[in-house]
Amino acid sequence: MKSLREHIQRDFSKNVIIALSVLLIALLIFPKFSSYTMLNLLTRIFVISVFAMSYDILRGYMGFINLGHAVYFGGGAYVAGILYNKLGTTIPVFILSIAVVVLYSVICALVMGKLSFKKGTSVFAAAMLTLALAEVVRNIAESWRDVTNGTDGLIFKVPSILSNRIFFYYFSLIFLIVMFIILRKFILSPTGRVIIAIRENEQRAEFLGFRIENYKLIAILVSGVSAGLAGLVFGTFNRFANTELLSITYSTNALLYTLIGGTGTLYGGIVGSIVVNVFQNMLLNLRSIHPIFERWLIFLGILYIAVILFMPKGIVGTLRHFIENRKVKSDNEKSSKTEKAPGE
Amino acid sequence: MMGEVLIKTENLGISFGAHKAVSNMNLELEEKVFTTILGPNGAGKTTLFNLISGLLKPTEGKIYFKGTDITCLSPVERVKMGMGRSFQLTNVFPNLTVYENVRLAVQSKENIGYRIFVDHRNYTSINQKADELLEKVLLSDKKSFIASKLSHTEQRKLELGMVLALEPEALLLDEPTAGMAIEEVPTMIEILAKIKKTGTTVILIEHKMDMVKALSDKLIIIVNGMKLIEGEPEAVSKHPEVLKAYLGGGVIDGINT
């Protein structure tokens, strides 16, 4: 068994390790100097990042557009709220809610996967199916008023330690780091590799002897459970769940985070979540300056269009491309120099 | 030279509407025999392969592999039984490295199951095999290239390497030299000769006879979805009906060289 250090060194260059350590330290001491508003913004970003990464497993790695991804996210928030309201606001209930969310997400993923990964279903038909399934769940949440409080949304209390903003900040940061490691491990696993192969060429993967449906099902299970847990943490953070969390708005939000950040990288989801949330926050603050910023969604839309037009690979994808190009260039320069050397 | 029958088809046929692409196909493909299926364009060679490998379901007849009826089995099940195929149009994972393409194929063969928390780079035996295969198909120096950046010929070799990784008992190759520049063909023939030596049963589709005459133990000529004739290469290539079919079909390339 290799040591942890060797593992880290294999995956990350020295510069990246230093940068990440600095970033981590900065994030750890951040609450000492920050306002609650900034703290909440960062907490939100951490949780949304997990949701975005879970989406990237399907879209970026497997090449599947899921328009019903909010089912897991919203479901996670509702499960937390319902359990707190019915069973009380204690830590054991929180732990129980984790188990229930996992179970709920597994069931949703199995139904969604079995229906939309049927052989011969086109990408569009499958995407429409996921959308329809999500609408079914949203409608149930809307009409089951006794439990979900319908369109008014569900307000609930959470265990006192979880309502401490500074504690929750650290909790979400750890949640993000743990989920990043788990999802990265998944992508680097043999199963994760096959999921990438399916994106690349499904027919070839099949004729290499991989049972495509099973691999797709595993991917949606991993992705769904991650999104469900993100929803649980998000709900606990907001102490509120409404049907919007289950709607296509949230599914397409996840799509847009990965679009802006860059797909198939996992980091992309985090970057996208940072950019969108910070931008959104800035626009909301500008409302006091000029009333046009009341219509902040217009500006967000312009941002999306600009990124898709000028950076179709997203921020991370474009940066990567840029760095690789520079590397190739400097390599070429080096090799041309060494070629010249004997003649000099 | 005749071994056990590995693949057998009984009255195999498929129709697309009124068009019978393959009909009444009775084949017996023996073990360790290098069989080449020849025929003019549109004769139904690839359709026959699609039927045998499970990409298409036949409308009539049966297919047996190693004595088992596989007519209703999925492509994956046929691969697991020991059937590997390449495609006429290059079929690789375009945005993955050459190495990863082959490694995935080895991973499938090794049947390690659905592991989700072990790093794929930790399987040393798989990595080793992938390296060996790249050597076999003469692509070791292109290991870290992205597959789509390879030349057409190299991509064909890569696909062959992937199919070889499955260590198939029956290797179905659909025109491995299609689209290759003429001077690149000999290296492909060389690789095919090497595969033949290892004792793998190769079934090859070609439409240029001169390329494979020396390599093949048996030729099967298909015209209009039906078997015209089969037998030893020398005898078949001189058969008057074959000459007629080829000339009549307008395909004269290579038949009389």
Automatic annotation (TrEMBL), chain A:
Q: Which residues cross the membrane?
A: 12-30, 64-84, 90-111, 166-183, 217-237, 257-280, 292-311
A GO CC annotation given for this chain:
plasma membrane
Phylogenetic lineage: Bacteria, Bacillati, Bacillota, Tissierellia, Sedimentibacter
* Location within or outside the cell: Cell membrane
Keyword annotations of the record = Cell membrane, Membrane, Transmembrane, Transmembrane helix
* Protein name stated in the entry: Branched-chain amino acid ABC transporter permease
* Topology within the bilayer: Multi-pass membrane protein
Major location, coarse class? Answer: membrane
- Is the keyword Coiled coil assigned to this protein? no
One GO MF term: branched-chain amino acid transmembrane transporter activity
